[in-house]
């Protein structure tokens, strides 16, 4: 199903209700593209695009720590950081989400494009594996690495959608709903392109 809001008022309505802009079903699992602040989503886990210290930062990381409260930082301090491409899980504290999965995306450089694409795919794979280990039914991803880490948005969206699709296709996942959470409509367009390329939706 494809639904694009016609005007700005519609976009506000879509954001307020977290109605997906785009959905696809694979093996009874639902993939959604939503325009929202990820901290407001009602899912079992939201994924944080963290830095390797796991001690908070700007962008989506800062927003998640602000919304979750200081207990999140206290738990993160005990984790001893996280290497790029890997993921660690904490509780969600004051968030609606019960858990936060912290993953560290690569800082993009064109000279290491292949390695950075593989690391970004690892972020999605390892986050999905953690969600399955904790028997979660729903999770939401921000566009990892596409902010201050400067990963090209179109490429990042393709990697995100392709990696999630592979996981859902190849694994016995308990995840019933996986959300690609875009902060604005411009980034949602890249997910729309990725869904179309992979013949989803
Ligand atoms: P990174 O360091 O991995 O690049 P950023 O936080 O700088 O992480 O940005 C990652 C993506 O998250 C960007 O596309 C940015 O627009 C988006 N983003 C920032 N804040 C939020 C939020 N509250 N909810 C959802 N997405 C967000």
Task: Walk me through this protein's architecture.
The protein has 201 residues and is of the alpha/beta class. The protein has a single domain (27-197), classed as Leucine Aminopeptidase, subunit E, domain 1. 40% of the residues lie in helices and 19% in strands. The protein contains six helices and seven strands. It has helices at 8-17, 59-68, 70-77, 113-133, 153-170, 185-197; strands spanning 22-26, 29-35, 45-50, 87-91, 99-104, 138-141, 177-182. A seven-stranded mixed β-sheet has the order 1-2-7-6-3-5-4, sandwiched between helices. Helix 4 (113-133) packs across helix 5 (153-170) and helix 5 (153-170) crosses helix 6. The longest helix is centred in the middle third of the chain and has 21 residues, at 113-133. The termini are close together. Mean pLDDT is 93; it is low at 1-9. It binds adenosine-5'-diphosphate. Adenosine-5'-diphosphate binds next to helix 2.
Q: How would a textbook summarize the main sheet?
A: 7 strands, mixed
Helix content: 25-40%
Q: H/E series, N to C?
A: HEEEHHEEHEHEH
CATH fold field value: Leucine Aminopeptidase, subunit E, domain 1
Radius of gyration: 16 Å
Strand percentage:
15-25%
User: Termini distance?
Assistant: 6 Å
Give the tally of structural domains: 1
> What small molecules does the structure contain?
adenosine-5'-diphosphate
Q: Calculate the mean pLDDT score and round it.
A: 93
Principal-axes geometry comes out as globular
Structural class: alpha/beta
Q: Kindly provide the name of the CATH class.
A: Alpha Beta
Low-confidence stretches: 1-9
If classified by CATH, what would the architecture be?
3-Layer(aba) Sandwich
- The CATH superfamily is Leucine Aminopeptidase, subunit E, domain 1
- The number of distinct β-strands equals 7
